[in-house]
Every structure is written in C-alpha cells, then in structure tokens.
C-alpha cells in the first residue's frame, strides 16, 4: 500500500487531554469574552468584522485585568488583613493560570483562528504587544503573591530603598525572578520558594510560546519574480 495523499493525524491521548485541561482552565475568561458562533455561510467581510470586534474585546479585557492586578497588588501590600486581601491574592493567582493556559491554548488548539485563517490573520505587531503585556502582568501578579507574605522575602544585607514596604519587596523579587537577574540581595524562603520556581518557568515558557505565536502569524516573504521558474511552454 502506498502512503495516502492526506494522512490522518495521530495525536495519542496526551494532546487531547491537555486540550481538555486548557479549556477548563480558561473557561472563566472564555465565558466573559463569549467567542462568536460562526454560521456555516459567512463572507470574508463578516469574518473580518467579527474578528475585529473580538480583538477589541480581548484587548479591553487584558488591559482591564492588568489594572485590576495593580490594584490587587496595592491592596495586598497596604490593605487590612481581611477577606478582600485573600480575594486579591486569589485573583492574581487566577490571572497567572489564565494567561499561561490561554497562550498555550491559542498556540496549540485555538479553533477560532483555525476556522478563520483563510480570511483573518492576527497582526504580528498585536501579537508582540499583547505578549509584552502578558509578560508584565505575570510580574505584577507574582509581586502580589510575594507581597502577601513579605516576611518570607529575606534581604541578604541591609535592605535598600527598593525594599521599603511589601509592594517594593514583591516587585523587586518578582522582576529579579522572572528576568533571571537575581543579584543575591533578596531571596524567598518557605512556601515562596516553589512560587519563585513556578514564576521562572512561567516567564521562560511564555517567551517561548509568544515566539511560536509570532512565527505563526508572520506572513511568508513574497518571492522575487526573477527567482521564479519560467512558465511552461504550452503544447503546439
């Protein structure tokens, strides 16, 4: 038997299981954004209009979440120890999971893009900008977790001004961990150690996924007409 012209994909069970897990993890944001249901007969103009509206909603959602993350960081650092402080930590923790799961799902299993790729492509510029926003959001979210337990952020020597207050400790440790530029002036202890491990993995993984996403949306270069083979001579 020969090889079929269009062989079927073999996915095993790990990839489908991961797809289900990612859909569950991103369910809250998916319900908020409510992806459009595409009818069977849609013109390219309809695809473009629907995708443009969804892009605006996604950008607004991401920008709003970043502002809420900053507010949560401030409340965790300065607010009283009540249920709202625990809610703020829970929110930034959910955002960490949602950002990573969404980026992974978009890179591997985004059905919306796969159904509209003939008409609509994400702008490479937009992919880069949203990637930078997501990267910064991870820094703010993990800073909120560190600010929740500032006593577990230990200074190796006399604390410089950047360590003034839980927010300063959290931001400094978060940036140093995610950028992998720790200078030995502060380090986490206790249960913040595995949190720092997770942040380092999340930062590196997000960079890799965003590069893959960017390469997927960059249009292929147009070949030089001089390099194209001559057209075949029609038969006489």
Which blocks of ≥5 consecutive residues have pLDDT under 50? 112-118
Spell out the helices and strands N to C.
HHHHHHEHEH
Helical stretch tally: 8
Strands, total number: 2
The overall average pLDDT, rounded, is 82
- Provide the β-strand percentage band: under 5%
Structure characterization notes:
This protein is mostly helical. The protein has one domain. Helices cover 64% and strands 3% of the residues. It is built from 8 helices and 2 strands. Strands 1-2 form a two-stranded antiparallel ribbon. Helix 3 runs antiparallel to helix 4 (83-109) and helix 3 runs parallel beside helix 6 (124-148). The radius of gyration is 23 Å and the shape is elongated. The relative contact order is 0.11.
Structure at a glance:
It is built from eight helices and two strands, in the order ααααααβαβα.
Summarize the SSE layout with pairings.
Elements: H1 14-25, H2 27-33, H3 44-78, H4 83-109, H5 111-116, H6 124-148, E1 153-155, H7 165-178, E2 186-188, H8 192-217
Antiparallel strand pairs: 1-2
Please describe the structure with a list of short key phrases separated by commas or semicolons.
elongated, 2 strands
